[in-house]
Amino acid sequence: MLPHDDRSHRRIGMGCAVLAHTMWGLFPLYWRNLLMVDPLELTSHRVLWSFVLLSVLLPILLSLKVWGGWELFLKAVCTRRVLWIYAAAALMIAINWLSFVYAVTNGRILDASLGYYINPLLNVLLGVIFLRERLASSQWVAIGLAAIGVTVMTVAGGGLPWPALGMACSFAIYGLLKKQAPLPALLGLWLETAILAGPTLILLGMMERTSGTAFLAGTLSTQALLMFGGVITVAPLALFAIASHRVSLSTMGVLQYIGPTLQLLVGTLIAGETFGVWRIVGFVFVWTGILVYLSRMR
C-alpha cells in the first residue's frame, strides 16, 4: 500500500487532472454565450486577458521563489533560441485557440472534439518525424485507423474538417516546441501571451476603427464574459500543471480523453449538431485507433 501522504498527494493530483479536463470539455458552453462576437476578436480577448491575469499572479509567485524565482525566468527570456521557441509556440497556440473558437461559434463543436481525439496520435507521429522516435506496429495501426476515420468524414462531408485539423496540428506542433522549452507551463504561457499581446492590441484597434468591436459596443455581460475568458483559460492549465507532478503519465494519457468526450456530448445533446451515420463511422475508426494506442501504454 502507498503511504498516507503519497495517497493524498495522488488524490489531489487526480482531482486536479479530472477537473482540468472537465473544464476543457465544457469550454464550448462558455464560448456559446459569445456567438455574437467575431472569432478573431474573441481569440484576441482570450490572449489579452490571459496575459493580464498572468501578469498579476506570476510576478508574486516568482517573488516568493516559486519555480526558482526570477533568475530562471530572466535567464530564459534573455536567450535568443528560447525566445524563438516561445514565439513559434505563441503562433501555434493562437492558431489553436482561433480554430477552437471558430468551431464552437460556427456550429462545429464535433470538429473540435475530433481535433482533440486525434491530437495524441499526431503527437506520436511528430515524435517519429522530428525526434527520431521509434514506433511499435500497434502505434502505426492506431495512426492509420485515425487517418481512415478522418478520410471517411472528409469524403462523406464533402470537405476536410478544417477546424479539427487546425486544432490537432497546431496543438501537436505546440507540444513538440514545448519539449524544447525550459520554462514551466504557466510561465511559458505568460511569455507566449506577452509575445502575442502587442499584435493583439493592434488587431483590436484596427477592428475598432473599421467595423467596431463587440467589447466596446456590447453590454456589460458581454464585456465581463470576454474578460473572464482569461480566467477560464489559465485555471485548467494551472490545475493540469499541479496534476502532472502527482499523476503517472499513463493515467494522464487516459484522462486526456475526458475533454473531447464532453465536447462530443455538448455538441450533440446541447448544441444539437448532427451526428450522422458517416460521422459515426469516422469516429469509430478514430476511437478504435485510440484504444489501440492506449493498449500500448499498459
From TrEMBL:
Belongs to the EamA transporter family. This is Putative DMT superfamily transporter inner membrane protein. The keyword Cytoplasm does not apply. Pfam families: EamA. It is a multi-pass membrane protein. GO terms for cellular component: plasma membrane. It comes from Roseimaritima multifibrata. Keywords: Cell membrane, Membrane, Transmembrane, Transmembrane helix, Transport. The chain crosses the membrane at residues 12-31, 51-70, 82-102, 114-131, 138-156, 184-204, 224-242, 277-294. The keyword Phosphoprotein does not apply. Its main location: membrane. Residues 12-154 form the EamA domain. It is found in: Cell membrane.
